[in-house]
Amino acid sequence: MSDTTLTALLDRDRVPLLYHTARNMQPRQLAGIAERKLRHLIVPAVPVDFDARYEGSVPASLSGAPDPVARNTALLRDALPSSGQTDFRELSQGIAAGEVTFRNRTVTVESASGVDWVGAGVPEPSTLWGLQFHGFAFLMWPVLGYQSPTDCTAVEETLEQWLRDWDRSGSNRIGQPAYLRRSWTPHAVSLRILNLVRFYAWAEDVLEPPHSARLRKLVYKNAAFLSNHVEHDIGGNHLIENGAALVMAGLFFPESGQQWVKQGLDVLVETAEQFRADGGHFERSPMYHAVTVTRYLTVIDLLKRVGREIPPEVQRVATAGVRFLRDMEPPDGRLPLLNDSVFGLALPLQSCLAYARAVGIEPTDETTSAQNAPTASGYYWLGTGRSRLLVDGGAIGPPHLPAHSHNDHFAVLWWADGQRILTDTGVFEYLPTTERQYSRSVEAHNTVQYDDVEPIQTGGSYLFGRRIEPEVAYEHRDGLTCFDGHYRTESSSQPQYSHRRHIYGSDTWWLVWDTVSAEKSAPIRSRLHLDPAVTVRSTPSDGQQHLVVSSLEGGSETGIAHIYPLDTDRIIRDQRPYYPEFGRSMPRTGITLRTDGSDVSFGFLLSTDDIDTVDVTRDGDEATGVQVGTVFQPLTSIED
């Protein structure tokens, strides 16, 4: 054990996180961690050429059936907006120059000696960049950007050279030291299979026989390896990627791959349990939900094209998953960046829905409103139409798999007349950096923080401390939609407190009222993070003061939304980071409402109209109703 590892294990702040993370893991997960460490220790030292064994398993005569995949890929391409296809074409041009761009980072991977697959400049698959690189995601750029390889000959020829180089490279052999953390990470293998088969189906007409045979061999070898390394121990979205890759590989080899079709479908039937009653994926990330549902849609379409029966569980997940996406669709039609979500990894929300329609999955009930909010997943809509509020009222992800969860209890996102106003933060990367810790913290979300306490302690890339279980009531009464959420922290290593958030919503205004109780007086902050496309200003001090939100587009100062702080001591405006894509950080305005004390109640009103009055009906410090009627408490000046 290295000194660094030992220091990390003995870190007083880290030990509770390791304990609470491990105690919630399933036995299969813990066994998988142990098995991978043993494989890394033993396999490279054994005098057996494991790579040659997998090479030897490839049939001498191996034919492929790419037509179903080619037709499915056409559906996928047609589901993209024209701007998306343009983006893929631009990325493709970098390939001809030996460059690959993932996560807003460009790396020159090609040199005079070939592609530097594991060089110092190329991140390993344990990073998002490396996972996409070794998963051959670059193959999809021309496939989705161009109808035919004849439209980008130089790109297609370069990719042929890269794949030839990968096949010959000694650094990519199975059994090399740390091979399960590098080229042969099962997640990367799954992506590699999916992308190789799609590339083969797209380029088949221009591939020379030696190269097409090499690609078939690569697909077979990778599928054989994945079949022996399905990630049952990790589960989650990884397992769904495994299942989809095995089905695609098996259907690509109709004569020799039927065992993979069965295995992959068994996996996808097993992972059907990952989807909640409203169709949402249990990791509670809209981005990963879109990724996983897209895989189910692809499998359904491929099975239809070859006349295979679709397991009822697979059909159910796809149908319910598409309905969830539609129910989560906000007024601007783009994914809410809740938990670990960014733009650019999954299909855009509208494209995912278009792909589902093309595959033949289109659930009934076309109306998304507060009445069909995806509450089983912990998401609650207040309002209808182009102005709506979304509340994250659920617990973190499944106890054994909270990796993509954030401290965002009762956070709100707000759209006014189709414009994003209050947004979540997104995520910069998964490495244990300052950006990672910030994006998961309560500070990065539109909710309340007591002192400097995190409701659940976080650490590393994915560690979570002792969990809390929010209690939520949600109903529609007297023309309003009402949300009432409450939780109490359970940590023994930091101050405990309770937080209750009442929200009352119509179609034009939303009152958010917070009550925080603790034994010790401390600063209590309610934070609001504005989308970078809007700006905020305060009204003149001689009038009824509040915050006016305006769009930056067109240079208009006309207010499109209004924020009225209530019963707060201080209002602070500052700049905060926003991570809409992996590897991209941009500034946006933040507003903090601060009140000090041990038992405090305060809040804010959001409105699409410039209104004069509001009345909060209270029972002690608890808000029990709301009515437009009484003058707002004037604001103090905003601190910059």
From TrEMBL:
<feature type="domain" description="Heparin-sulfate lyase N-terminal">
    <location>
        <begin position="113"/>
        <end position="342"/>
    </location>
</feature>
<keyword id="KW-0574">Periplasm</keyword>
<keyword id="KW-0614">Plasmid</keyword>
<protein>
    <submittedName>
        <fullName>Uncharacterized protein</fullName>
    </submittedName>
</protein>
<feature type="domain" description="Heparinase II/III-like C-terminal">
    <location>
        <begin position="375"/>
        <end position="547"/>
    </location>
</feature>
<dbReference type="InterPro" id="IPR031680">
    <property type="entry name" value="Hepar_II_III_N"/>
</dbReference>
<dbReference type="InterPro" id="IPR008929">
    <property type="entry name" value="Chondroitin_lyas"/>
</dbReference>
<keyword id="KW-0456">Lyase</keyword>
<dbReference type="GO" id="GO:0042597">
    <property type="term" value="C:periplasmic space"/>
</dbReference>
<dbReference type="Pfam" id="PF07940">
    <property type="entry name" value="Hepar_II_III_C"/>
</dbReference>
<dbReference type="GO" id="GO:0016829">
    <property type="term" value="F:lyase activity"/>
</dbReference>
<dbReference type="Pfam" id="PF16889">
    <property type="entry name" value="Hepar_II_III_N"/>
</dbReference>
<dbReference type="InterPro" id="IPR012480">
    <property type="entry name" value="Hepar_II_III_C"/>
</dbReference>
<keyword id="KW-0732">Signal</keyword>
